[in-house]
Amino acid sequence: MIKALFIRGMLYYDGVSAVEYEWIKALQGRVSYDYALLDPDKSVPEKESAVKELGCQIYPLRYKSSSSLASHKNRERVLGEFLAQHHYDVVHIDTDLLSRYDVAKVARKAGVKKVIIHSHNAMRDLHGIQKIPLAAKLERHLIGKYATDLAACSKEAAKWLFSSKDQAKVRIIHNGIDRAQYTFSKERRQKLRASLKISDDTLVLGNIGRLAEQKNQLFLLDIFKEVARLTKAKLILIGSGDKETEIRSKIAKEGLTDQVILIKATDQVPDYLFAMDVFVMPSLYEGLPMTLLEAQTSGLPCVISDVISSEMDFPGLIKREKLTTSPAEWAKLVIDTAKKSTFDRKQEAQVLTKIGYDNQESAEQVYQMYVGESK
């Protein structure tokens, strides 16, 4: 059996944690997984419990630092000591950070034969030292130098994390989900809407994701305000993050407290998707967002920003709009999309397998990467 180690910051209610969970579940008996967490105190206990139930060991790696440079060095030292004590055939680094080349470097130095850096986002802005000319270029070069294998959830995510000369080496492995879990249920829709006191004639918009600048929920509130001016509507906003205080303040300021339902990150995502009428995602950038895949699998029509990849579009379910378009125009498109939706929501789940995003298929591709030769 292959022994594999995921090295992550934390386990959370995010798309990457969900994808890894599906791989662990699908590859039981062939791959034994563990986790090394670099920021373990931010993990969600429920997520840790879920992977432990599948047989994973979780190792929290803590290190003190007084500066970013010291943090970098201490992280390498602590991780190196850990890998010297534990043997793994594969180190799998799911990330969107250019700086994670250092984790790959330590793993290679420790003698790990297969070291994978797997890109899961397509960022647009550089931060910190990466703003210095050639710094980002150097880090992309170092990723290619230390990783034995490169993978990405989409072409855009590959372009973000890896150098242009390494693009030919990248394996595109779609993020897969469990189709049965997201197949629409009218009964569960009605039950959740009743619990939230949402009437049948109310248009429900939804958005799921970190409350962060990338996800652009402050602009979503501007869109929803226009929607609510035109029709009876509510917004279900699921997530938590550093923009939460600002978002809550804006909801109160705009007088939307009774119309916006804020839900902390939850494992009850399918039921909330069933309760929605249209999914709205005005993100500033994305790799291949799992929540958008889940929304489509549940049969939801989706209105999204035009910067989001079209690699996983279900036929007819996606409408795109420019981020420079006014909230009023977005609102008209949202309402029009919801009104004209004639899809059999239950049948849409079958499209997932047809376009190659079933969790079993993506897990098999991951396994083949583990046992195959490096490109």
Low-confidence stretches: none
Q: Indicate the radius of gyration in whole angstroms.
A: 21 Å
Order of helices and strands: EHEHEHEHEHEHEHEHEHEHEHEEHHH
DSSP helical segment count: 14
Give the % helix. 25-40%
> How large is the share of residues in beta strands?
15-25%
Total E-strand runs: 13
Question: Structural class of the helices, strands and pairings?
Answer: alpha/beta
Measure the end-to-end span: 22 Å
What is the arithmetic mean of pLDDT? Answer: 92
Approximate shape: globular
Q: How is the main sheet built?
A: 7 strands, parallel
Strand order of the largest sheet: 3-2-1-4-5-6-7
Write up what this structure looks like.
The protein is an alpha/beta fold and 375 residues long. The protein is 39% helix and 17% strand. The protein contains 14 helices and 13 strands. The chain has helices at 15-26, 45-53, 68-85, 101-109, 135-146, 155-161, 186-195, 217-230, 244-253, 269-275, 290-297, 327-339, 349-354, 359-371; strands at residues 2-8, 31-37, 57-60, 90-95, 114-119, 149-152, 170-172, 203-208, 233-238, 260-263, 278-281, 302-305, 318-321. The strands form two sheets. Strands 3-2-1-4-5-6-7 form a seven-stranded parallel beta sheet, with helices on both faces. Strands 10-9-8-11-12-13 form a six-stranded parallel beta sheet, sandwiched between helices. Strand 1, helix 1 (15-26) and strand 2 (31-37) form a beta-alpha-beta unit. The longest helix has 18 residues, at 68-85. The chain is globular and about 60 Å long. The mean pLDDT is 92.
